[in-house]
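Below is a filled-in request sheet from our internal design queue. Each sheet records the structural input a requester submitted and the sequence that came back. We keep these sheets so that new team members can see what a complete request looks like end to end.

REQUESTER: design group, bay 2
PRIORITY: normal
MODE: inverse folding
CHAIN LENGTH: 633
BACKBONE (tokenized):
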């Protein structure tokens, strides 16, 4: 098992300050407004205490003593009080407006950064992280990381208020000031204890948020499976278990907050009672005037606000640390796709070649965030090779940890496909056909060897260059909640002629014409209103309209009947789209239309040649293909 280490409280506080620094640098404008407003509020609050002390000594006591009101002095007092109150109100507006704008600005900024990072990371990284985890990173974790921004402006203003108030307290009465300052060490002790316990509680709560999001996402995606198999009750129970665990963990967080917050509230009130008790005695002996005591009590009451603000910010800090740790793991995740600068010609079908290619699918990872761990990586150092993996079986286990580190892909695969040819990848389930198809369009990079398009290693091509020349259509065709035309064009500028031509070759124009709204028909989420074969044909049209020079079909016609599949392949060979076609096929009728067949088994290229050659010379191929034939019959 991986060894973990616990963070010491002072380390947590230092990391919390790091998050605060990120926030300040990330929203300088809003924080300037918020801090300015908070500072104005702090200064006006101190000014209010001075005005209150002056009014007590010069107006109220004089009225009590003489029984007469100096209207001019009273007018000045009213103007002073109203003026200070107006500026305090302006400060409140500024600090709240700036603080919340900063919070929402930071959340929006880092959501975009996380999403952009998702787009930059290769498919292999995404395969190791669940969708629910990624949704949590982009939403709940970003929110948690920057909730601390809301009290940050107030905290700066509170610091100013604390400094000014502390100076005035010392000037007014050093003894009473010493009593007031004793609150600080008690607050520090309470915060140390709180931070130590809150770190683990907040981490577990954030992980449970991700688990609930993951379960909900799976339930929504698998709604038809759940309903058709009558598993509603079991799925509700599975979701309930994770929801109850989240509830329990959030309650634990709430209990810790419920213990900490009253202590923070009580500390200044207890100190004020002591100040008033001792201060009244000092007024009796003439060490203080009544106005000085009122001023001192008011000033000390002001310290309650900074303590509450600091308590608020310190209370958010553990959650901010946890949220930022989870966001940081995404932003610092390794596995960027490196690009070169090479360009390819724009005309004619492409050639595609594999040169001694091996690939090992990495094992799925799960973030265990109770303790700090290094950012996830896309590759792991092993004392085994892909060849060793394939020789022993489908799964590789690291003997040091007994953890699964890889799943069989392909090993030592070499072949070349001429421009304009149609090549069938044939092999049993799990043989490596999809791995080869994905490597052709660089869904992930090889562990060894080279994939070459028109003689150029795909890793040397400029960004988006491969997407301009090669396209892949998967068995599970994803459609957006848009019109059929929108799903084919994906917002690019294509005219109706291009759309209809692509749909014709994909054998989709017929059923589209029968729909009431034709190409303007909304297909629903994930194309729910269409059949599986219809979705596959629209996905094929989406690839064809971009006129790829290499078209890879990874079981992309498995949901259409054999006659339609044959027409599609014939249209690709004779139609207007000059392309090299690689199709993962299992129907003998489709395989017979290919110029060449690559027979894959256990991740290796066993044989290649024409269908008739392999049928006669390779027993395993003959058995596989004829088995499918009998099954279709």
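RETURNED SEQUENCE:
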């Amino acid at each position: 098992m991986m060894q973990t280490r616990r963070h010491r409280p002072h380390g947590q506080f230092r990391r919390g300050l790091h998050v605060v620094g990120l926030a300040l640098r990330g929203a300088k404008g809003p924080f300037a407004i918020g801090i300015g407003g908070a500072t104005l509020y702090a200064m006006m609050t101190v000014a209010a205490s001075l005005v209150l002390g002056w009014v007590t000594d010069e107006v109220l006591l004089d009225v009590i003593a003489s029984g007469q009101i100096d209207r001019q002095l009273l007018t000045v007092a009213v103007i002073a009080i109203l003026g200070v109150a107006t500026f305090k109100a302006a400060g409140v507006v500024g600090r709240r407006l700036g603080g919340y704008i900063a919070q929402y600005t930071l959340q929006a900024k880092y959501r975009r950064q996380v999403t952009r990072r998702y787009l930059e990371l290769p498919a292999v990284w995404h395969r190791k992280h669940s969708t629910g985890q990624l949704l949590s990173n982009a939403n709940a974790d970003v929110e948690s990381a920057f909730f601390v921004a809301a009290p940050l402006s107030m905290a700066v203003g509170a610091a100013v208020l604390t400094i000014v108030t502390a100076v005035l307290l010392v000037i007014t009465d050093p003894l009473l000031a010493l009593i007031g300052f004793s609150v600080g060490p008690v607050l520090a002790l309470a915060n140390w204890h709180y931070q130590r316990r809150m770190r683990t509680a907040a981490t577990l709560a954030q992980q449970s948020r991700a688990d609930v999001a993951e379960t909900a996402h799976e339930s929504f995606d698998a709604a038809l499976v759940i309903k058709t198999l009558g598993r509603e009750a079991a799925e509700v129970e599975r979701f309930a278990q994770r929801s109850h665990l989240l509830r329990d963990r959030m309650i634990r967080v709430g209990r810790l907050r419920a213990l900490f917050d009253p202590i923070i509230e009580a500390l200044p009130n207890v100190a004020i009672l002591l100040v008033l008790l001792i201060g009244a005695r000092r007024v009796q002996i003439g060490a203080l005037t009544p106005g000085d005591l009122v001023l001192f009590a008011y000033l000390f009451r002001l310290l309650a606000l900074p303590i509450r603000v600091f308590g608020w910010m310190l209370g958010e800090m553990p959650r901010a640390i946890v949220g930022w740790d989870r966001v940081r793991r995404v932003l610092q995740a390794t596995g960027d796709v490196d690009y070169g600068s090479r360009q390819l010609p724009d005309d004619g079908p492409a050639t595609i070649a594999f040169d001694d290619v091996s690939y090992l699918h990495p094992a799925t990872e799960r973030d265990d965030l109770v303790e700090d761990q290094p950012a996830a990586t896309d590759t792991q150092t092993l004392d085994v090779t892909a060849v060793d993996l394939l020789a022993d079986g489908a799964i590789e286990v690291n003997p040091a940890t007994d953890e699964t580190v890889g799943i069989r892909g392909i090993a030592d695969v070499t072949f070349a496909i001429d421009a304009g040819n149609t090549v069938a990848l044939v092999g049993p389930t799990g043989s490596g056909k999809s791995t080869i198809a994905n490597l052709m369009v660089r869904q992930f990079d090889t562990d060894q060897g080279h994939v070459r398009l028109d003689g150029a290693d795909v890793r040397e091509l400029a960004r988006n260059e491969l997407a301009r020349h090669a396209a892949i259509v998967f068995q599970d065709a994803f459609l957006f909640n848009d019109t059929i035309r929108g799903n084919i064009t994906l917002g690019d500028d294509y005219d109706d002629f291009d759309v209809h031509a692509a749909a014709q070759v994909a054998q989709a124009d017929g059923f589209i014409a029968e729909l009431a709204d034709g190409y303007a028909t909304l297909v629903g989420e994930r194309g729910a209103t269409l059949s599986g074969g219809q979705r596959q044909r629209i996905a094929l049209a989406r690839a064809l309209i971009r006129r790829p020079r290499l078209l890879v079909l990874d079981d992309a016609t498995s949901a259409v009947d054999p006659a339609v599949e044959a027409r599609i392949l014939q249209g690709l060979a004779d139609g207007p789209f000059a392309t090299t076609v690689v199709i993962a096929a299992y129907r003998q009728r489709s395989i017979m239309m290919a110029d060449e067949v690559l027979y894959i088994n256990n991740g290796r290229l066993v044989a290649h040649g024409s269908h008739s050659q392999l049928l006669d010379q390779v027993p395993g191929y003959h058995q596989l293909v004829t088995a499918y034939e009998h099954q279709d019959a």
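SHEET NOTES:
- The chain is about 60% helix and 10% strand.
- Residues 1-7, 366-393 have pLDDT under 50 and may be disordered.
FILED BY: M.R.
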